[in-house]
Design a protein that fits this description.
7 strands, 7-stranded mixed sheet, FAS1 domain, 10 helices, alpha+beta
């Protein structure tokens, strides 16, 4: 009986020891190698950015009055595609005489503001490829398009009514690009296609000067110069001398004839 009890106890101890050894030798599974989430881009405050820049106050005023600034802000911080904004300077608005923006409705002003943006982030280098796919639809919709021309990094923009260029980059960090333009972009979808002709370039100084302008007033261009007059006098003097000699000879012969006849 005792031997049986000892055998059972010994067997139990061996089984426990074996299970503990297996538990210690079992390796834990490797950690997951899932990629870390991409860092969230920094929040861009467009109102603050345009205010600090200093010369976009008129444009910012239109964005705020039409609530387009909220659309731009949401696009800048909650979209993977980002946004590209073309901000006219205060001088661009003050120099705009015709057509006037004062007669536009609130909806038209909203479309005008949206027309100054593209619903995607574009760096300056991207405009080379973008110019090949012009016209490009803006944030305002399909009818509101812009044409881009890249001339060795100098980006020109045309809306039909407006021809301008990107004069400087205020911010160009994905997902937000903010570029300065020196003219207000006017869409044909609002102002029509009856675009007045551009003023002709000023003529060059050479073209302005007429042949008569080179001649002082009151001077006869056909008048003979003093040098030519003196030359004519020189040429005529031998003829005068020749005629004088012949007349003297005639009177001398005549005198001889009269004397002989007397």
């Amino acid at each position: 009986m005792k031997s049986t009890t000892v055998f059972l106890i010994t067997t139990a101890v061996l089984l426990l020891s074996s299970s503990e050894a297996k538990a210690q030798t079992t390796k834990s599974p490797p950690p997951s190698l899932a990629p870390a989430p991409a860092p969230t881009p920094d929040h861009v405050n467009l109102t603050h950015l345009l205010t600090v820049a200093g010369h976009f106050q008129t444009f910012l005023g239109y964005l705020e009055s039409t609530k387009v600034i909220d659309t731009f802000q949401n696009r800048a911080n909650n979209s993977k595609d980002g946004i590209t904004i073309f901000a006219p300077t205060d001088d661009a608005f003050s120099s705009l005489k015709q057509p006037s923006l004062s007669n536009l409705t609130q909806d038209q002003l909203k479309s005008l503001c949206l027309f100054h943006s593209l619903p995607r982030y574009y760096s300056l280098a991207d405009f080379k490829n973008l110019s090949e796919s012009s016209p490009v639809s803006t944030f305002a919709g399909g009818q509101y398009t812009l044409n881009f021309t890249d001339l060795s990094g100098d980006v020109h923009i045309s809306s039909g009514w407006t021809n301008t260029r990107i004069s400087s980059s205020v911010l160009s960090t994905d997902p937000v690009a903010l570029y300065q333009v020196n003219r207000v972009l006017l869409p044909e979808a609002i102002f029509g296609t009856n675009i007045p002709p551009m003023p002709a370039p000023a003529p060059s100084p050479e073209a302005e000067a007429s042949p008569a302008a080179d001649t002082p007033s009151g001077v006869n261009v056909n008048a003979t110069s003093p040098s030519s007059s003196s030359e004519q006098n020189k040429n005529s003097s031998p003829q005068v001398i020749s005629l004088g000699f012949q007349s003297q000879l005639f009177f001398a012969v005549l005198s001889v004839v009269i004397i002989m006849s007397g």
